[in-house]
Protein 1
Amino acid sequence: MRLLVVDDSAVTRAMIKRTVAAAGLPVVAVDEASDGQAAIRALALRGADLLITDLNMPGMGGVDLVRAVRADPVLAAIAVVVVSTDGSPARRAMLAELGVAGYLAKPFRPEELREVLAGVLAGLGGAS
Amino acid sequence: MTPALADALVAAVTEILEVAAFELGDAAAPVAPPDDAVATTIAFHGPPSGTVRVWIDAAEARAFAVATLGCDDPEPAVVADAVRELTNMIAGHVLGRVWPDVCIALDGAALGAASPADAYAVHVTGDHGRIAVGMEVAS
């Protein structure tokens, strides 16, 4: 599985990558992007099986990124997990309508991220 | 600031400290920001709209970065990034709980000089120093 981590915080990208590396998940590569536009470029170049994205980012935020992915026939099937500070029920309902497979509120414990990712990856055909 | 909002801010800071930095925070009486405090602001847009202000002792900021990144000696830019993310987490945590039925957009957190002491109504002490938070709701 190939992951793309999208967050404007380098600290958070590093936290997620560290958790993924330690979790024993069937991941062969983890790419990074700092906003939605950079994520679109990375997806066009290298693709991904799973997109892990923040919502509040400068430029193209996470909601617009997910909408762009869903509107692109080549990218539409990519699974999406949102990791964000915005955990309101209203936001979660809106993300569910966009087909987001998992949601995790910041701050998160490593085991919480592992659990969410394992569930999503299992659904994609990877062992957890 | 209403007591309910102040309680929500204390809850946000203590939960974030516990989950992200493995520290137990305690509410404390306000003090003025020290010269080496790291200060941030973040605006939110709903309605409601407003601003969340944070300052954090330099030692606590560094400890937060060490805990979240798992590194021993973070560069100042990494500490600043960690404090911006801490501010983002505090704002998102509070907004999602106080106004659960509204999708509120957050700007990026910005570093800057600390505001006057009375702009920070809520203070929480961690293992290495203090985090002070203020919140203004404009509409």
Protein 2
Amino acid sequence: MAAIELRGLTKVYPGGVKALDALDLVIPDGEFFALLGPSGCGKTTLLRTIAGLETATGGAVVIGGRDVTGVQPGGRDVAMVFQDYALFPHMDVTDNIAYPLRIKKVPKGTRREKAAEVGARLGLEHLMDRRPGQLSGGQQQRVALARVMATQAQAYLFDEPLSNLDARLRLEARTFLKKLQRELGVTTVFVTHDQAEALAMADRMAVMEAGHIRQIGTPSEVFQRPANTFVAAFIGSTPMNLLDGIVRGDTLEVAGCKVAVPDSAAGLLSDGEQIVYGVRPEYLAYSAEPADGAFGGKVAIVENLGAAHLVTLDVGGVSVQAVVPEGSEPAVGDDGFALPRRDRALIYRNGELV
Amino acid sequence: MTRFVLGRIGFYTMIAVLLAFFTIPLLWLVTAPFTSDPTYEVRVPDFTWDNFKAVVEHPYALPSLWNSVVLSVGTALLVVIFSALAAYALSRVRVPGRDALLYALLLLSSIITGTAAMVPLFQLAVELNLIDSQMGLILILTGGLLPAAIFMLKDFMDSTPKSYEESARVFGASPLQIVRHVVVPVVRPGLATIAVWSVANVWGNFLMPYLLLSDVEKQPAAVITYTLYTEGGQANLSMLSTFGLLYSIPVVLMYLFVSKKYGFRFHGGIKR
Amino acid sequence: MAQAISPPEVAAESGKERYSSDAAGLGKARAGVFMAPALLLIAAFLVFPALWVLYLGLTNYRLTGVAAAEPQFVGLDNLLDAASNPTFWSSTWLTVEFVLGSAVIGQVVLGFTIAWLLRDKRGPIKRVVEGLVILAWILPSAIVSFLWVALLDRDAGTLNALLGMPGMAWLLDHPMLSIIVFNTWRGTAFSMMLYGAALGNVPPSHLESARLAGASGWQQLRDVVFPHIRGHILTNLLLISLWTFNDFSPFLLTAGGPDGKSEVLAVHVYKVALQGGELGYGAAVSTIILLINLVVAVFYLRLLRSKK
């Protein structure tokens, strides 16, 4: 069990590309931490650098209080689950799980016992003699987890742990992983490009873009108060409305409508400023009746989300989306008004949260 | 309709011609060994084992098959081991000049053929007293096969996922442990392919053993076959046909086995 | 030495890997150790002889006699000897005939024809025909050579029996024809498989469109198939020409006779250098062979690269 700390961690590739740019991060002991970002943002590079598979060009990696920046991958006391699980195809499940113990020179009998123990804990008792090729995706994942648990390492690293599973299994596996990590209490860092996954599983997360960390926070923080427009646009199953606007005294003119200043930005704005107004479709109250401070326009598209609908309003040429509960969805062409929640709307100045 | 029928007739005619062309030369190999006192004629055999007895009793026939085995297996062993090590290093490590080296290997394997190298190899063997050394021949054959083997294996290893090795590495295995525990088992099909390819290349090789082995007891079947039909006045047809059949069977079996198991043919690259 | 496979296509190397490829942490030092045995063997038994032959070609080295003990440097004399030696030139010409006849015309045409005939077939016919063609290729060279000696025998050979021409001594009267047909028979398998694969890659929809537009088989061949496989034809031609140029098996069939009438360069080198003992001269001719190989191989690799 250990905290992981990154101090000014930099990784530059031979071509000059900066994969990681002076990152600072502290992950406390026992936390389930997510590295989230689009492809190419550096999250996997970061994970691999923590593991030691990539060497840092600058800065330090500290695990459990020990500076491991120059230490070989095997000596950092971390364990990693790869995206394809990397279960050795020529070994059965028992030998796969026991492999880390074999490296540690644990005698054969003992390590097979330990492997059986860990396997049983994850419900693999009946599969211990099978080869990885004979297992389903979910079973393979559990074997990979068992193998990592057998190491009793200080920290676990998971590279896209759910992306190899099909959609249905993914949701079950999410819950399973979160529960397991809670039970084990081992510091775990996982990489994902799926924001819903990160929000659901992580205790805290870092949102990355192009080698930088754009925001660190709990899922609620990142969802409700994204620190910049990048995070605002990236997080959320339905994209946040980000609308250009101007400050007019103590109200805002956004998409041609008069809108109230959100609570979070009260007193922080100056007249005539160009700002970006951010509000999630879930935080807009839709009504067919006009309301003060609402966005008014014609309904352009109605998308069915299951228990709700996503209504796109054409507000003077600008699209504003609102989530409407089932039963109250409008028809295309209707006039509609979307009133933003003052406690959930956000203002961005030059891309940063006010 | 007529066009279709004519087309069909044409097709089957061509197939018949092709079948004839490719079968007829082979007929003798399957009829003569079973015919007592065979001539060059292809006749329905009278099914005798006498010729096989003669082969077994011939002082150099069966031993030469053994020599062929020794040469083939010996070469295959060296080729597999050395090419696997080199291919792995070239696949995983960014050695300086790697691309140039690979290109050079490719060139070498095409340019330096037995025909081009027979003079210097022979002269060097004479100078260094290496004539009649089976080991020397194995080394030479290995050297000849290595470039292509390295190239093929590297190709194969490039497409083997690296996550097995990285996984073992994070678990604390040393590089040599990783090679032993993880790499070798995973690339076994590739190694088997190279082994079979090497055996196939050496089994039928005539020129090198002909040049470099003078002791008849060391010569492989390829050379003995040639000896059987050029030494002395009349070619001993019962020996030749029967011995020839025995000599041919292993390669045919190998080919059948490989194409059944891996479903690919010997034409470049390794199918996965 | 000559491989029974084609050198695999050169992969487009790019340094654009995002992550370190040294998955096991081998490091450059260990990598060097891994590569050393193979590279040493290659250097000793492939590269060195190739360089040595250049040197030998410049001496008057002989197997026996004074020049064996004390070879002298004679510069380009051997080359000049070759240039003025009619046997050398006739041998070269015979080799050209051999390559043209058996590789360029024989194997390519026959290989393509078979591939084309069998292109859409599955079933036993395809398996049997392919199996036999491949059998001709994989059987040991000493055996197939003798099978053809038997086939072409003047008195009891099957060919004469079939053609009703007893007493026709093919190997004596038509040695070049014999070895050309023999080599075509032997080597067609490679071209057949190559064209088979290439034809398999022609999108069926193109062929269908042509057929629906009323194109005959021949027109489909000309307008749809050839454009697709044009690149393959050239590379295939180069490769098998290279192999045929270096092929030693005519020796097994005719030993270059009668009277050198089928003495292709490979056999010529053997006769002059190893039977005749003139190693210096033989080395010079070998150098010429090497250079020709080099030119063809480089051309072939260039073509492969540009196809990517």
